[in-house]
Recover the amino acids of this structure.
């Protein structure tokens, strides 16, 4: 939780830095102003509950972390609304995932390529666990699912990676 005045100031900076981006992501998914606002509020509520885990505000990891959370909240809202008539595109990659450059080792480039092709529910939990360093219980709290669901997604995601990388 946001307890100290320093954390409150940091949280406010985080909010002001990312609220528009998160609203944009939510609105594109939900196509409803009020639902998008609700998704943004829920995202910051979940982040506030685990605020000690947030490092730097101005970094791609924080940005990606917030986008993953809002995407999952938006998908949950779409499912609850039941007025959504199209299919949820779980294959669509999250914008802002770290790309590769000529200095990236070939093996890491292969892993990144495979991750980009994976369904979002596996890709996101793998990223949160392996790159951002969150435990299954923490990821479950952020995404609003059970820790067992996250453990299963981590296991299945790792198996997909192994299979696709041929190891």
């Amino acid at each position: 939780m946001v307890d100290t005045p320093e954390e409150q100031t940091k949280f406010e900076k985080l909010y002001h830095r990312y609220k528009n981006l998160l609203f944009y992501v939510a609105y594109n998914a939900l196509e409803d102003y009020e639902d998008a606002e609700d998704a943004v509020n829920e995202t910051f509520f979940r982040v506030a509950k685990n605020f000690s885990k947030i490092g730097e505000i101005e970094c791609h990891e924080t940005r990606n972390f917030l986008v993953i959370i809002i995407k999952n909240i938006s998908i949950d809202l779409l499912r609850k609304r039941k007025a959504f008539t199209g299919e949820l595109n779980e294959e669509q990659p999250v914008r802002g995932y770290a790309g590769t450059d000529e200095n990236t080792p070939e093996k890491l480039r292969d892993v990144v390529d495979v991750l980009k092709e994976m369904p979002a529910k596996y890709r996101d939990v793998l990223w949160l666990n392996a790159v951002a360093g969150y435990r299954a219980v923490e990821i479950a709290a952020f995404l609003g699912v059970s820790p067992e669901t996250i453990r299963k997604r981590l296991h299945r995601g790792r198996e997909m990676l192994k299979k696709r990388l041929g190891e």
Summary: The mean pLDDT is 81. Residues 58 and 128 are 17 Å apart (CA to CA). The chain has seven helices and no strands. The domain at 1-88 is CATH 1.10.1740 (Rna Polymerase Sigma Factor; Chain: A).
